[in-house]
Amino acid sequence: MRTRGGLLIANVIAGLALGFTVANIGFGDFAELNRMFTFQDLRMLGAFAGGVALVVVVFALIRVRRSPGRIHKGVIPGAVLFGGGWALSGGCPAIPIVQVASGYVPALVTIGGIVVGTWLCRWVNARYLRVDVGSCGR
């Protein structure tokens, strides 16, 4: 699995499994996301909390250590924009792909917004902000 082809196949299989799971449990549904963001139904929020808890346990088991550092000055505004876009569109970057694969064609608008927003962010940063984005912006 160390070849590029093997890694690609593994990623495609993992992506298909994730998409299938997300679609079948209803997390690709805008109404479900809306209920989570308005705290009407905590099932999805509980799933995210469970996922974070699982990662914490796995990282502890394999002894992943990350030294705490300063928060990058772009993290807070980026998180606010990401969360706001997610709440408005009903999808983080992966969910619209699941929605389109499930036949929900309006999610193409969200995918277009992600592409334009990413381009616009890089353009504004390069032209005006000049914030070091590290490996994330390359």
UniProtKB/TrEMBL annotation:
Record bears the keyword Mitochondrion: no
InterPro entries xref list: Sulf_transp_TsuA/YedE
Keyword Transmembrane helix listed: yes
Keywords: Membrane, Transmembrane, Transmembrane helix
Transmembrane segments: 7-27, 42-62, 74-98, 104-121
Protein name stated in the entry: Sulphur transport domain-containing protein
Origin species: Plantactinospora endophytica
